[in-house]
TrEMBL record:
Keywords: Cell shape, Cell wall biogenesis/degradation, Isomerase, Peptidoglycan synthesis
Record organism: Rhizobium mesoamericanum STM3625
Gene3D superfamilies, sorted: 3.40.50.1860
Enzyme class per UniProt: isomerase
Protein name: Glutamate racemase
EC number annotated for this UniProt entry: 5.1.1.3
Protein family (similarity comment): Belongs to the aspartate/glutamate racemases family.
Location of the active site: C79, C194
UniProt lineage: Bacteria, Pseudomonadati, Pseudomonadota, Alphaproteobacteria, Hyphomicrobiales
Main function: Provides the (R)-glutamate required for cell wall biosynthesis.
Pathway: Cell wall biogenesis; peptidoglycan biosynthesis
Length: 266
């Protein structure tokens, strides 16, 4: 390394599982000069049905360790279920760190819908958050918003991403409530409000009773992160590889292989 080159701090991307990879792949395109550390709290997965106070405590505790160990430039919380619960607490607990959040894309959906019928497909946790209700109240009062809390889809998506067989019936029974017909109009936008779901967008498209726009916020999150991470022309990524950390300490073979496919050392 020459004297003119600085070692750049990495970008940390956090999710309960492997759904945050949908955000990581976009973030990498926009920040090629940075190293990435992907954290999957697989020991706590799925977050969707956790009791709120216990989950809050867990995530704040994890971040105390993660920040001390990895010294990131910025943390992307690539998990709606986590950020809608604990985003404000993370910022209060670690004021020196920049957190980029992931929240249901209700505002852009409300701006784009023609029929006025929008559905939000998310975990049960995200659906019941005050944060989600506030987004609807603030940005989508003119719309009919159907919140669909799926118990199983994050798990199904994990299986699908790892290459396991997933039945059409199982997927359809999780998404069919998103399709609403009212006074001659039909749902035209479904917000993918869990970072696991964009991996299954092709399956959703194939099974949908009619075509809708499946809104994936990953690129917008990556753009937000890029705007907060200083551009450093002479900077280098110090280790030359990106890292995936699993809180279980023990990802299975299929998961390790998946990480390799994403260029991450697990
Ligand atoms: N990927 C997470 C999200 O965006 C949630 C998955 C889970 O732990 O249930 O909400």
């Amino acid at each position: 390394m020459t004297a003119a080159q600085n070692e750049l701090k990495p970008v940390l991307v956090f999710d309960s599982g492997i759904g945050g990879l949908t955000v990581l792949r976009e973030a990498r395109v926009l920040m090629p000069e940075r190293g990435f550390i992907y954290i999957a709290d697989d020991a706590g997965f799925p977050y969707g049905s956790w009791e709120e106070e216990a989950l809050k405590k867990r995530i704040i505790g994890l971040f105390a360790e993660l920040l001390a160990e990895h010294h990131p430039e910025v943390c992307i919380i690539a998990c709606n279920t986590a950020f809608t619960l604990v985003g404000a607490d993370l910022r209060a607990a670690f004021p020196q760190m920049t957190f980029v959040g992931t929240v249901p894309a209700i505002k852009p959906a409300a701006e784009r819908t023609r029929s006025g019928l929008v559905s939000v497909l998310a975990t049960p946790g995200t659906v019941k958050r005050a944060y989600t209700r506030d987004l609807i109240q603030s940005f989508a009062q003119q719309c009919h918003v159907r919140l669909v809390g799926s118990e199983n889809l994050a798990r199904i998506a994990e299986a699908y991403i790892r290459g396991d067989a997933v039945s059409d019936e199982a997927v359809l029974s999780e998404i069919d409530q998103c399709f609403v017909e009212k006074d001659g109009s039909k749902t035209d936008i479904v917000v993918l409000a869990c970072t696991h779901y964009p991996f299954m967008a092709n399956v959703f498209r194939r099974l949908a009773p009619w075509p809708v726009d499946w809104l994936d916020p990953a690129e917008a999150i990556a753009r937000r992160a890029r705007s907060l991470v200083p551009q450093a022309a002479d900077g280098v990524h110090p280790d030359n590889f990106d890292l995936a950390v699993f809180t279980s300490g023990n990802p299975d073979f299929a998961t390790r292989r998946l990480m390799q496919g994403f260029g991450l050392k697990a």
